[in-house]
Design brief:
The protein has four helices and 17 strands. The chain is an alpha+beta fold.
């Protein structure tokens, strides 16, 4: 084997190893450090719904674009997590994963089977009657997530945010109840198996927006009134100068008005 062929084969082997390593990094799973990150879910586990999702924030402002979710699995030992885009389904990035056995024993995410592929992130648990929790990314004014399990749902909006304005808020699917507790809006579905889509707004932005609209309307009205007066003044000046003389029907062939 000549030196050139050996060089080509060596380079091909290096490229193959690099590609394999890259694929493993992208699709091989989530690191133990990410799965075991610190997070608190006690406030969500104490609620009655099968699925409780909290879009987190503080003083009406989002500290970070994230949400926490707790799922009572109800005889489900595998959870496939994804988000649907316009073109395809993409794996949901998760962190701070926890699992609780039916007896309450807690297990961190690194002790579970968590695999991330191109189209989904799969969590497999040892007992399908336990609960699983994780943290994920969320947008600042919208939230969308498929219904990974069927059952009752509760979604907590960030503090100071609302969905009850027709122009700025929207909730799907219908059939929900809305309640505000300690300045946080809660949305409840007694039974749901459809993707949840929420558009919300900061409640204190509504008076500000109304004020801006009022100022814009006042400025616009003042400008229109000013130009209307100017047009009327110019029209009056033209009439006084005789520049706005209307021509009558001269079908008889006579001279224009004012001419002998």
């Amino acid at each position: 084997m000549n030196s050139r062929l050996r060089l080509v084969l060596a380079m091909s082997l290096v490229a193959l190893i690099a590609m394999t390593a890259g694929c493993s990094t992208i699709f091989g799973g989530i690191s133990d450090e990410t799965l075991d990150q610190n997070e608190t879910y006690d406030d969500l586990r104490d609620r009655d719904a099968d699925v409780v999702i909290s879009i987190d924030g503080s003083d009406g402002l989002l500290e970070s674009n994230s949400f926490r979710a707790v799922y009572d699995l109800n005889d489900t030992d595998e959870l496939s997590l994804y988000r649907s885009s316009f073109y395809r389904e993409e794996a949901l990035d998760i962190e701070a994963v926890r699992y609780w056995y039916p007896n309450g024993t807690e297990v961190t995410g690194s002790n579970l089977s968590v695999d991330q592929g191109r189209s989904s992130t799969t969590i497999r648990v040892p007992d399908g009657n336990g609960s699983v929790a994780f943290r994920g990314e969320a947008d600042s004014k919208t939230f969308q997530l498929p219904a990974f399990v069927s059952g009752s749902y509760e979604v907590l909006l960030p503090e100071g945010h609302r969905t009850d304005n027709f122009f700025f808020g929207n909730v799907n699917p219908n059939g929900y109840e809305r309640e505000t507790i300690d300045d946080r809006e809660h949305l409840y579905w007694e039974e749901n198996d459809r993707a949840i889509s929420i558009r919300f707004f900061l409640s204190r932005d509504i008076p500000l927006f109304a004020g801006l609209v009022g100022v814009a309307t006042l400025i616009g009205g003042t400008g229109i009134a000013y130009y209307y007066r100017r047009v009327k003044q110019l029209q009056k000046q033209r009439e006084e100068m005789g520049l706005d003389v209307e021509l009558e029907d001269d079908s008889d062939g006579g001279p224009p008005p004012g001419m002998p």
